[in-house]
């Protein structure tokens, strides 16, 4: 299976996938990363891809006259690599109709909270501010909402009294990286069906 991974930041989830595939071998893992895309230049996630010798592309909203034009350009850039599965690993843009028309049902996102709680760009901060005693991460298929698609897997992380946002996010990411590696491998190796809100992995 061919994976395209989309990033916007440090790319540690991407790195976890790269390390797993390097350790296990693409054959045994069931997938290889064929390209990495981003919505901005100069991020560590792109540097990680370059260090791994992978093709990269950047699709910036401000380079396009409209949001729809950006969405179509992003879909084109991803499609050029003929992915079987697209993985959003800290990609911080909401894709639109064109992208979902082409990749819906094979576009996976990881979110650092237990959806449906705390969707959006500040899930860790929101859980902390709310006083949640446990939070975690969710790997789900992307649909036309924000963090609302069918859930594939979740991991629970305790919130500690001394936590600030970055400490809690780091602890969530330790669980999240393992969950993403495990889920992407299973989807790639076994195949899956989406039945309403349920995801069935063969
Ligand atoms: C991850 O926790 C992801 O869920 C969130 O941003 C973080 C990205 O981390 N959207 P990285 O770029 O993979 O290190």
UniProtKB/TrEMBL annotation:
Keywords: Purine biosynthesis, Transferase. Gene3D superfamilies: Formyl transferase, N-terminal domain. Signal peptide: none annotated. (6R)-10-formyltetrahydrofolate binds at residues 67, 92-95, 109. The active site is at residue 111. InterPro entries: Formyl_transf_N, Formyl_transf_N_sf, GART, GART_AS. The keyword Transferase applies. Pathway: Purine metabolism; IMP biosynthesis via de novo pathway; N(2)-formyl-N(1)-(5-phospho-D-ribosyl)glycinamide from N(1)-(5-phospho-D-ribosyl)glycinamide (10-formyl THF route): step 1/1. It comes from the Bacteria. N(1)-(5-phospho-beta-D-ribosyl)glycinamide binds at residues 11-13. Residues 2-184 form the Formyl transferase N-terminal domain. Its EC number is 2.1.2.2. It catalyses: N(1)-(5-phospho-beta-D-ribosyl)glycinamide + (6R)-10-formyltetrahydrofolate = N(2)-formyl-N(1)-(5-phospho-beta-D-ribosyl)glycinamide + (6S)-5,6,7,8-tetrahydrofolate + H(+). One of its GO terms (molecular function) is phosphoribosylglycinamide formyltransferase activity. The record marks 147 as: Raises pKa of active site His. Belongs to the GART family. HAMAP family: PurN. Catalyzes the transfer of a formyl group from 10-formyltetrahydrofolate to 5-phospho-ribosyl-glycinamide (GAR), producing 5-phospho-ribosyl-N-formylglycinamide (FGAR) and tetrahydrofolate. This is Phosphoribosylglycinamide formyltransferase. It comes from Streptomyces marokkonensis. The lineage of its organism: Bacteria, Bacillati, Actinomycetota, Actinomycetes, Kitasatosporales.
